[in-house]
Specification:
single chain; 473 residues; mainly alpha; Fumarase C, Chain B, domain 1; Fumarase C, Chain A, domain 2; Ribonucleotide Reductase Protein R1, domain 1; 3 domains; two-stranded antiparallel ribbon; two-stranded parallel ribbon; 60% helix
Length: 473
């Protein structure tokens, strides 16, 4: 077979976008999965040896060195055992059994033949694999996924802080509305992301694992060593490996906590889709300018264009990720009877969903780093839509006891664009005290932003505290 290149990949994740998701390789490649399975099998063997009823002596450091030495060449050996066979071992056509036979070979190499009967003792494949996946998901969230979200949040905080007081025309239903500030619009997304990030971190800490045998009853364990507290053993072992023990199971761990994590990550992705679309829209309205990148092509035919490609790429990948995460959450929580194997092939796509998320985070971050408020356009739009101040007129009238304030103002301004002379004349017609009319006449759209700056600074303060507490592993 000729050497494989990224240009031959069917999936863009392992092709076009490979460099952007390289951090996920230790977690979601076959190499990463097999290495984690080796870790679980070896730690299980070490834990078995602690039982006085199981009369084996295990050199823990020597066994753990097998894991430390596991590299791509060792992973190829497991693959060979599975697909071709090795020495006297016929092909297993079963990946976990191949791991077991691989470990037997390593124990022979270390002159530890007396341990061979206890490799994978009493286990079903899913005992090893569910723990491996749980640990890999947990480590990938606490590492590259959280790191990418932290980077994105830090950029949003900078944009919010720099523009906390910059007035901007608001739009509801796409129409000119009460002014806001540029910083406040970013602060909204910061606040949303902080809330969902907290839930994601909680769900990550709640990931469960099971070690309970073929149908979840520890039957082989109990039959062989009935005097051992196998439930306690299972719970302690899973806890030591960083997961929450789940004992009432079938052959598989039911994935409910994993599904909750997927749903939390999907909500984060949807928030960022919303952000990407808003940034795209503000760019199209010329509220934001984009820094042109030297050598970058915006259009194959229109050389003047600087397209919002990073936000478009982010939107597409995050939408794909969200869809995949919803599918995984729905599918993995169902299984026929004690188990069917459909979850096994579906579960291999966890890394695909996470990869699309990571690509999306990096794309949106890249887009955010290239934009800047176009103050001339923003301020012109404010001055050209003075009619948005009519909200202040009707609430002022209400303050002075006029219950029909809304209806009166609506008749004067609805559907109209007003200059300051017309505004002065309209305010003179309102049944308000002279000093109140004078105040309203001086009001400008850029002044009418309420507590936007204060709200923004409060969100920024909260965000900085959270970001300081997050320990990316």
């Amino acid at each position: 077979m000729k050497e494989f290149t990224n240009l031959q990949a069917i999936s863009p994740i392992d092709g076009r976008y490979r460099e952007r998701v390289e951090e996920l390789v230790p977690f979601y490649s076959q190499f990463g999965l097999d290495k984690e399975r080796v870790f679980v099998e070896l730690e299980y063997l070490i834990e078995l040896a602690k039982l006085k009823e199981v009369k084996i002596q295990v050199p823990s450091e020597q066994l753990r060195q097998i894991f430390e030495d596991f590299d791509l060449e060792e992973a190829h050996l497991i693959h060979k055992i599975e697909t071709e066979g090795y020495k006297e071992i016929p092909p297993t056509h079963h990946d976990v059994k191949a791991v077991e036979y691989y470990l037997r070979e390593k124990l022979r190499d270390h002159n530890l033949e007396e341990l061979l009967p206890f490799v994978h003792f009493g286990l079903t494949s899913e005992d090893v694999t569910n723990i491996a996946y749980g640990r890999l998901v947990k480590k990938s969230i606490q590492g590259p996924i959280i790191q990418a979200l932290v980077d994105l949040l830090e950029q949003l905080v900078d944009l919010a802080e720099d523009n906390a007081a910059q007035p901007m025309l608001g739009r509801t239903h796409g129409q000119p509305a009460t002014p806001t500030t540029v910083g406040k619009e970013f602060a909204i997304f910061i606040s949303r992301l902080l809330g969902e990030l907290a839930k994601l971190r909680d769900r990550t800490g709640e990931l469960t694992g099971k070690l309970a045998g073929a149908t979840g009853n520890l039957s082989a364990h109990q039959d062989s060593f009935s005097q051992v507290d196998w439930i306690g053993f299972s719970e302690e072992f899973i806890s030591r490996l960083g997961l929450v023990p789940k004992m009432a199971v079938t052959q598989i761990e039911p994935y409910d906590n994993l599904a909750s994590l997927f749903q939390a990550l999907s909500r984060i992705d949807n928030i960022l889709v919303d952000l990407a679309r808003d940034c795209w829209t503000y760019i199209s309205r010329e509220y934001f300018t984009q820094q042109a990148v030297s050598g970058e092509v915006g259009s194959s035919t229109m050389p003047q264009k600087v397209n919002p490609i990073d936000f478009e790429n982010g939107e597409g990948n995050l939408s794909k990720a969200s869809s995949d995460l919803h599918f995984l959450a729905d599918y993995l929580t169902t299984s026929r009877m004690q188990r069917d194997l459909s979850d096994s092939t579906v579960r291999r796509n966890i890394g695909v969903a996470f990869a699309h998320s990571l690509i999306g985070y990096k794309s949106v971050l890249k887009g955010l780093r290239k934009i800047a408020p176009n103050l001339e356009k923003i301020n012109d739009d404010l001055e050209n839509h003075t009619e948005v101040l009519s909200e202040s007129w009707q609430t002022s009238m209400r303050k002075y006891g006029h219950i029909d304030a809304y209806e009166v103002v609506k008749e004067l301004v609805r559907g109209k664009e007003l200059n300051y002379q017309e505004i002065t004349e309209l305010i003179d017609e309102l049944p308000l005290p002279t000093n109140e009319k004078a105040r309203l006449k001086k009001l400008r759209p850029g002044d009418y932003v309420g507590l936007a700056e204060k709200i923004t600074n409060h969100v920024i303060s909260d965000a900085r505290k959270v970001l300081e507490e997050i320990d990316v592993k």
